[in-house]
UniProtKB/TrEMBL annotation:
InterPro entries: ThiF/MoeB/HesA, ThiF_NAD_FAD-bd, Ubiquitin-activating_enz. SUPFAM superfamilies: Activating enzymes of the ubiquitin-like proteins (SSF69572). It comes from the Eukaryota. Residues 8-161 form the THIF-type NAD/FAD binding fold domain. It comes from Salix udensis. GO terms for molecular function: NEDD8 activating enzyme activity. One of its GO terms (cellular component) is cytoplasm. This is THIF-type NAD/FAD binding fold domain-containing protein. The lineage of its organism: Eukaryota, Viridiplantae, Streptophyta, Embryophyta, Tracheophyta. One of its GO terms (biological process) is protein neddylation.
Length: 324
């Protein structure tokens, strides 16, 4: 058996070890293993989901051979749940798989507490009244629920969940945050120790662009009542001030400062979206709170106490990124 890091190498690069761990701990329940449900479960099994439970009370018919790749001629007349479960188990022997020969509608009515054991329930081809009952059951048990129904080449998918928090740890457009519009005390003290008008041309050329921006932003704020450039004309004027500080055309540090000047223009404090999250009633956590809201509560406490109204800086090597 291949090691998990080798076996799931490609997907690990997408969602990382934390995402893969969550997948491997997940327990999935499939209601009705027709073509839609079987294909859905196949993709989860190949990805390394922890366990699956297939529930279907029907038998394999000849018509199933034309639309479900998980059954063949030898399966005709046999339990569809058993045949599909057996096929899926062969795709990934690391996945725990079991089946129940029962019609999902009957199980929803007779044993609603059965569904509380799962991480996710995927319900396919259910009638509307059964969908409504199952939705209520899963919401009360705080279980993720996905409805899917196909009609030939058309269909629908509906997600039903009380709350689903997503933390984007690998954003598409990463912007390093040096908080140049409101520098932290150590950076401010370092900038104050450097003279931008140093007569030595070599020293002038090697002044870090971050220091240039911090000092020029402070100079601008003093002249404009504490405000930073906000309008188009003010931003243009600020760039001209940076350009005027150059003593030679080959000073790349000043060119970098001009290119990165937009980081000074960002408004101070936290965004309205973040304010909405930290002021949500769920940020008052207790022993039943999810990991997401525990992290929100910690962030809120940092902003109020240590952050001085600002969120924490990105976790990078500040000394290396600024001064090398």
């Amino acid at each position: 058996m291949a090691e998990p890091k080798t076996k799931y190498d490609r997907q690990l690069r997408i969602w990382g070890e934390q995402g893969q761990t969550a997948l491997e701990k997940a327990s999935i329940c499939l209601l009705n293993c027709g073509p839609t449900g079987s294909e859905t479960l196949k993709n989860l099994v190949l990805g390394g989901v922890g366990s699956i439970t297939v529930i279907d009370g029907s038998k394999v018919e000849l018509g199933d051979l034309g639309n479900n790749f998980m059954v063949d001629e030898s399966c005709v007349g046999q339990s569809k749940a058993k045949c599909v479960c057996t096929f899926l188990q062969e795709l990934n022997d690391a996945v725990k798989a079991k089946f129940i020969e029962e019609y999902p509608e009957a199980l929803v009515d007779s044993n609603p507490s059965f569904f509380s054991q799962f991480t996710l329930v995927v319900a396919t081809q259910l009638a509307e009244d059964s969908m409504m009952k199952l939705d209520k059951i899963c919401r009360e048990a705080n279980v993720l629920l996905i409805f899917a129904r196909s009609y030939g080449l058309t269909g629908f998918v509906r997600n039903s969940v009380k709350e689903h928090a997503v933390i984007e740890s690998k954003p598409d457009h990463f912007l390093d945050d040096l908080r140049l519009n409101n520098p932290w005390s150590e950076l401010k003290r370092f900038a104050e120790s450097i003279d931008l008008k140093v007569p030595d041309p070599v020293a002038h050329k090697h002044t870090p662009y971050v220091v240039i921006l911090v000092k020029m932003a402070e100079e601008w704020a003093k002249a404009h009542g504490g405000a930073l450039p906000s309008t188009r004309d003010e931003k243009k004027e600020f760039k001209e001030l940076l350009k005027a500080g150059m003593v030679a055309m080959d000073e790349d540090n000043y060119k970098e400062a001009i290119e990165a000047s937009f980081k000074v223009f960002a408004p101070r404090g936290i965004s309205s979206d973040l304010q909405q999250i930290i002021h949500d009633s769920c940020s008052e956590v207790d022993s039943n709170s999810s990991d997401f809201w525990v992290m929100v509560a910690a962030l809120k406490e940092f902003i109020v106490n240590e952050g001085g109204g600002e969120a924490p800086l990105e976790g990078f090597n500040t000394r290396y990124d600024i001064f090398n």
